[in-house]
């Protein structure tokens, strides 16, 4: 689910009303969105990038971070969000999007060579744009959000926007050997060919992830103007010559793609969301076979749905006129069929490409009606079910451990590499950890392989509380497993920590014994084949000579011991701690 950040004051000005945080949260909820966080640019830079120096110069202006459904591409910028909310509130009618045909259309010719790599392209022109610093930033951010969402990190579609006044049509889309493509990349001064560009951006924080899309291809896609000026090398980077700026008045948009349908959706979304600030001109795209197609299409289609069926599916009983009003508020202009009062005629605008079936229309009716307003009812049929055995055991153990005097904690599944490695005196390379491919924050880089760091952080946050502090958690960790279909597996563990003036090893040992007693597992003595016992071991996370493996029958299921002072220091703790952690899955 993508998250957008919008300036609160700018948003309220556009909506024409000021809200409290709680009021705006309720508005978002009613529309099917969620206000995720109220923050500032300074706080965001500190949290996401860890750059304290850069954050010092950042703005303290309030920013709303709003979670957007993954299929609502029309809400990924301030302009689209404001329009949708105003329509939802009944302040404006759903806008009608029109193309303004120029005296002479711009032309983009697709060469047959592009079939080897990215065969499709669409284009449009935004004429007489008036960018402000905020709308310019929103325009750039929208492209980035689309690239990460529907464009699947540029693998399906790559967007290029250019200052039309610096280039000359007709434009050509070709595929050439990389050494033949030479241009100055965006915000650079040195001319590079395709091969040099790959090497130059191999370590770039943002662009390096896109290089593999075309790097191993014998030809690279490239767009030229009539003077053979390079506009872009999709999906990597645009040329510096045609870059847009605050002073840009006319924008040429080109989208190259491996999926034509996705390219049309992306182009429609961009031009519709910014059509209020300019006029939209179509472009002619000449196909390799010589045929000419006009883009953007901005097609409006009509769907017909049954009022009776909509009411039955949602569980409400509303008249056709009210359902039509609900859909209109959701950006889907609807009217009751005069001949048949049970049918709604619904217009699907070019901004709502997420509506592909009647069930999507029913969903919008339910959102407008309000899920909380739908009366609860029992299903018309019965199903026999039972609790998942592992979850049942987890709930039973939670109650018993809590009764033993421990307080339950619920910590994040994601953590930093340091949390599970350096702070525990271990090397990250030696751990079977699942790493996040493109972590957004330093706090969430890997999936935890142990519950200990989360509980230690909880202790730090509550260190002002009186001792002893006794915490526990029963949750999943994730470890790499090559035999698994997805390359990793979940493992349910119980972890408990005792923090006091002395380590109190006997406290966690007593908890282990109590849990085993509840599970009817005896202490293994002599030649007994079944049972549990402890076996001394060494672990860098634990104090030397104060650590043991927990062995069930013949298998190691966990570890118990006193944490090493360096571990406590790494987590900013000054009080001794003893820990027990083991998997509960063998007991199911």
Automatic annotation (TrEMBL):
Q: Which InterPro entries match?
A: aa-tRNA-synth_II/BPL/LPL, B3/B4_tRNA-bd, DNA-bd_dom_put_sf, Phe-tRNA-ligase_IIc_bsu, Phe-tRNA-synth_IIc_bsu_arc_euk, Phe-tRNA_synthase-like_B3/B4, PheRS_beta_core, PhetRS_B1
Q: What is its main location?
A: cytoplasm
Task: Name the domain of life.
Answer: Eukaryota
Q: Which Gene3D superfamilies match?
A: 3.30.56.10, Bira Bifunctional Protein, Domain 2, Phenylalanyl-trna Synthetase, Chain B, domain 3
Q: From the Swiss-Prot or TrEMBL record, what is one GO molecular function term?
A: ATP binding
Checking CDD domains in the record gives: PheRS_beta_core
What sequence ranges are listed for the domain B5? 298-376
Name the coenzymes or cofactors required. Answer: Mg(2+)
**What do we know about how this protein assembles, alone or with others?**
Tetramer of two alpha and two beta subunits.
The family classification in the record reads:
Belongs to the phenylalanyl-tRNA synthetase beta subunit family. Type 2 subfamily.
Protein name per UniProt: Phenylalanine--tRNA ligase beta subunit
Taxonomy of origin reads: Eukaryota, Metazoa, Ecdysozoa, Arthropoda, Hexapoda
Gene encoding the protein: Dgri\GH18917
């Amino acid at each position: 689910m993508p998250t957008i950040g919008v300036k609160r004051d700018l948003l309220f000005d556009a909506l024409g009303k000021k809200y409290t945080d709680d009021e705006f949260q309720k508005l978002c909820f009613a529309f099917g969105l969620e206000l995720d966080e109220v923050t500032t640019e300074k706080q965001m830079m500190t949290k996401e990038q860890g750059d304290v120096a850069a954050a010092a110069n950042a703005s303290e202006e309030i920013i709303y971070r709003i979670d957007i459904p993954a299929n609502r591409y029309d809400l990924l910028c301030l302009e689209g969000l404001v329009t949708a909310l105003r329509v939802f509130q009944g302040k404006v009618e759903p806008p009608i999007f029109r193309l303004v045909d120029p005296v002479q259309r711009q032309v983009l010719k697709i060469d047959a060579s592009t079939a080897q790599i990215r065969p499709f392209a669409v284009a449009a022109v935004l004429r007489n744009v008036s960018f402000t610093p905020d709308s310019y930033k929103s325009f750039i951010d929208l492209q980035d959000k689309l690239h990460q969402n529907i464009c699947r990190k540029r693998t399906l579609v790559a967007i290029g926007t250019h200052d039309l006044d610096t280039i000359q049509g007709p434009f050509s889309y070709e595929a050439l050997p990389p050494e033949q493509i030479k241009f100055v990349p965006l915000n650079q001064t040195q001319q590079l060919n395709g091969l040099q560009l790959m090497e130059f951006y191999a370590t770039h924080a943002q662009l390096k992830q896109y290089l593999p899309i075309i790097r191993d291809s014998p030809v690279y896609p490239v767009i030229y103007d009539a003077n053979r000026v390079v506009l872009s090398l999709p999906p990597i980077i645009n040329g510096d010559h045609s870059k847009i700026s605050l002073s840009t008045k006319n924008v040429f948009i080109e989208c190259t793609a491996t999926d034509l349908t996705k390219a049309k959706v992306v182009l429609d979304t961009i031009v519709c969301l910014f059509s209020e600030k300019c006029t939209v001109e179509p472009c002619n795209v000449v196909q390799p076979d010589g045929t000419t197609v006009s883009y953007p299409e901005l097609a409006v289609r009509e769907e017909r749905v049954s009022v009776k069926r909509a009411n039955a599916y949602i569980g409400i009983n509303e008249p056709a006129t009210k359902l039509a009003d609900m859909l209109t508020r959701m950006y889907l202009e609807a009217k009751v069929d005069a001949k048949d009062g049970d049918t709604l005629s619904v217009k699907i605008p070019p901004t709502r490409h997420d509506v592909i079936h009647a069930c999507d229309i029913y969903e919008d009716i339910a959102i407008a009606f309000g899920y909380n307003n739908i009366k609860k009812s029992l299903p018309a049929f019965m199903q026999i079910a039972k609790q998942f055995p592992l979850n049942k055991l987890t709930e039973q153990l939670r109650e018993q451990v809590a009764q033993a005097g421990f307080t339950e904690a619920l910590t994040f599944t994601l953590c930093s590499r340091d949390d599970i490695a350096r702070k525990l005196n271990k090397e990250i390379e030696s751990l079977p950890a699942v790493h996040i491919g493109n972590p957004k924050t330093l706090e969430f880089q890997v999936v935890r392989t142990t519950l200990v760091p989360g509980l230690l952080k909880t202790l730090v946050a509550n260190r002002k509380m009186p001792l002893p502090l006794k915490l526990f958690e029963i949750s999943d960790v994730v470890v790499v497993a090559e035999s698994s279909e997805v390359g990793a597996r979940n493992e349910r563990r119980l972890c408990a920590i005792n923090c006091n003036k002395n380590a109190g090893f006997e406290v966690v040992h007593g908890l282990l014994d109590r849990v085993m007693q509840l599970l009817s597992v005896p202490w293994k003595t002599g030649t007994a084949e079944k049972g549990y016992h402890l076996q001394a071991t060494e672990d860098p996370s634990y104090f030397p000579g104060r650590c043991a493996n927990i062995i069930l029958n013949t298998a190691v299921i966990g570890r118990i011991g006193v944490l090493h002072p360096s571990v406590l220091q790494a987590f900013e703790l000054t009080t001794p701690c003893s820990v027990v952690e083991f998997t509960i899955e063998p007991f199911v």
